[in-house]
Amino acid sequence: xxxxxxxxxxxxxxxxxxxxxxxxxxxxxxxxxxxxxxxxxxxxxxxxxxxxxxxxxxxxxxxxxxxxxxxxxxxxxxxxxxxxxxxxxxxxxxxxxxxxxxxxxxxxxxxxxxxxxxxxxxxxxxxxxxxxxxxxxxxxxxxxxxxxxxxxxxxxxxxxxxxxxxxxxxxxxxxxxxxxxxxxxxxxxxxxxxxxxxxxxxxxxxxxxxxxxxxxxxxxxxxxxxxxxxxxxxxxxxxxxxxxxxxxxxxxxxxxxxxxxxxxxxxxxxxxxxxxxxxxxxxxxxxxxxxxxxxxxxxxxxxxxxxxxxxxxxxxxxxxxxxxxxxxxxxxxxxxxxxxxxxxxxxxxxxxxxxxxxxxxxxxxxxxxxxxxxxxxxx
Amino acid sequence: xxxxxxxxxxxxxxxxxxxxxxxxxxxxxxxxxxxxxxxxxxxxxxxxxxxxxxxxxxxxxxxxxxxxxxxxxxxxxxxxxxxxxxxxxxxxxxxxxxxxxxxxxxxxxxxxxxxxxxxxxxxxxxxxxxxxxxxxxxxxxxxxxxxxxxxxxxxxxxxxxxxxxxxxxxxxxxxxxxxxxxxxxxxxxxxxxxxxxxxxxxxxxxxxxxxxxxxxxxxxxxxxxxxxxxxxxxxxxxxxxxxxxxxxxxxxxxxxxxxxxxxxxxxxxxxxxxxxxxxxxxxxxxxxxxxxxxxxxxxxxxxxxxxxxxxxxxxxxxxxxxxxxxxxxxxxxxxxxxxxxxxxxxxxxxxxxxxxxxxxxxxxxxxxxxxxxxxxxxxxxxxxxxxxxxxxxxxxxxxxxxxxxxxxxxxxxxxxxxxxxxxxxxxxxxxxxxxxxxxxxxxxxxxxxxxxxxxxxxxxxxxxxxxxxxxxxxxxxx
Lengths: 379, 478
Hints:
The complex is a heterodimer of chains A (about 375) and B (about 475).
Chain A: H1 9-24, E1 37-38, E2 46-47, E3 53-56, E4 61-65, H2 70-79, E5 82-83, H3 103-109, H4 116-119, H5 122-125, E6 126-132, E7 138-142, H6 154-158, E8 167-174, E9 176-177, E10 181-188, H7 192-203, E11 209-215, E12 225-232, H8 234-247, E13 254-257, H9 260-271, E14 282-287, H10 293-300, E15 304-308, E16 313-318, E17 332-337, H11 340-346, H12 354-367
Antiparallel strand pairs in A: 1-2, 3-4, 4-8, 5-9, 6-7, 6-8, 10-12, 10-13, 11-12, 11-15, 14-16, 14-17, 15-16
Chain B: H1 8-12, H2 14-25, E1 30-31, H3 34-37, E2 54-56, H4 61-74, E3 78-81, E4 98-101, E5 108-112, E6 117-121, H5 126-133, E7 138-139, H6 152-158, H7 165-168, E8 175-181, E9 187-191, H8 202-206, E10 215-222, E11 224-225, E12 230-237, H9 240-252, E13 259-264, H10 265-275, E14 284-291, H11 294-309, E15 315-318, H12 322-342, E16 344-347, H13 357-371, E17 375-380, E18 388-392, H14 399-416, H15 435-438, H16 441-454, H17 468-475
Parallel strand pairs in B: 2-4, 3-4
Antiparallel strand pairs in B: 1-2, 5-6, 6-10, 7-11, 8-9, 8-10, 12-14, 12-15, 13-14, 13-17, 16-18, 17-18
Helix pairs in contact in B: 2-4, 9-13, 10-12, 13-14
């Protein structure tokens, strides 16, 4: 069964064309992010259908061609009072690019923002996927319903595979209603160990926290801020904001940011790592056990740090060529911004254990036996 | 149900196999007497039975690894078993297999409240995980109906859901790491107490893989803070179609109930006769539960009632106390038992887009008439996960076959309206031969490619998930 193609001849035709091109070609670099085109290094770049989707707002599901720009998706959802629940980041400005990402690129990188800590990552919102494998076959997996355990879950495998297993042509996603109100509790001046403890305490309350981040004091004179976000209906948010303030009294007095615009800007800047945009240095993205984060940061002494996901996600700005992984225990670190030489020397992706490496290589050789896709990526 | 012929060479080497297994597990850990292995001949899909050659009960990951080393060297199929509560025949043995049960692996390996994770051996029951953390205000979210008995190992294998997954997600959304033993006995650690994979999301493909890729012996699970409180509202309608429309409107409104359960008239009548919950006599009813403080619950229930009132309900019953909540849930929780009083039943598990509910319910009614078998519907409406219960008489010649044929028609209907064969029970053997209705042979080949990597000899949980015709060449390597 096709997820989308059967209902949409334009997408089906495009998939057939792409599949033929994959079969005929040699090496393909899949570069979803940056344009609505899926670029192929051999042959002509084929323009993905950028107006193709099947959006069922009353079922909270959206199926779309992978080539649709993220901002087009977001404005489409917003018209129905909905959004992408995993808060997709736009790292382009921080990376010094002007390009706009595609929905396929989001899924291929499993890109997830601050809300990931409680509502889940991009992969948790992916319901179905269509892709072209290395043999030039159009493959579908999952579907467009919320619960589906039919066969092996290749949707999750494709999410975050960075184009190493196939070329994603369509995705089906779960959407989320935009809440009536969003507010942020702010505790100022906490030491980083205390900040992580405060975030942990907040995330352990029943008050449905959807964001927990900590920012250092910055050059503009703003103090260090620990930020706890809650969302929902107005009555409920007001109640929970008070309850959370009470729960966190041990960490000092807290204020509440009520202004919708200010909240949106604040969390967008955390999501997009805007703070590092005009600062020089390498940028690393870490996933660690939250309570390990403060000591790791103390050992590393980075130029700057953003704690997100209650400390489970660290964005580090380091001096060029710092090998962050040398300081780490469990968890993983991805080198997001650095010179090509540094990327070459340290590797963009975190090394895996031997068995996982063997399995990953095995999967890659099965899905893409002639190594047509994204050679050298993730290996 | 067609199963491959047992491997006669394996059967002939039983005593050698048993002595090798005993050398690793001792006499207590290996069951080989025919009258004793019979205890493992089926799971909760009891219509299909086959005693295994041997059953083993290891206590540690290392013992599991040694068993798998022995079996892979001898070419013996291995069928993993959690608590045996699969409704899809996921743990059905073959006559030439070793059943590997995790029932002795029930230790809690660590609880970490600040980081909101628990690490367990996977033989522990689902409810015990919550039991371990609830006095500190936490719980483990996935809540399959069998949670008192079912094991985390089986939950991971089937990516189990439950009534409350509308808000909290299913197993895959709450699993952070595993220790798994591969078919050749190699032990692999994937994930941990941090979020998301650095490379390929192997955890994502392992969860729900029905024992095809390896045996998960330890798991790191996310635990969540318990809500302050929860209360349901019961709403009756004089048509299933209207109840379905009401579900759509609630979901679209921005409310996130923890559960939206649906029962149709046959099910309501059966539960009334059985449990006397005092449900209204109507075509369809919804039970919608919300969480929060008392004031938050009142506010959310008021919003739900306002939406429901636009759909001309025949009755609205808002709970204001734990006693009233229990009464509202009583019928729903007794539904399966009540249907069981009417005769034998088969429980289906297809999922459909929520908007297709009215059409699918109507078609199920028509099919039920055509086949002359009663069907009751009780299911998780919020996410479109249907559970049609087909009534039949196991003692009546040909009735099971008729029931299976009706079940297959209903599942094909689910796929045809844009849904899938199974929302939370898994494919097992039950839906194996329907897979080609949902997937092309290329789609299935891509899935089998994954198994090729994890289990190159195809010894794990044979003849499940993939139609036999599609997997013949690969299984032929045995």
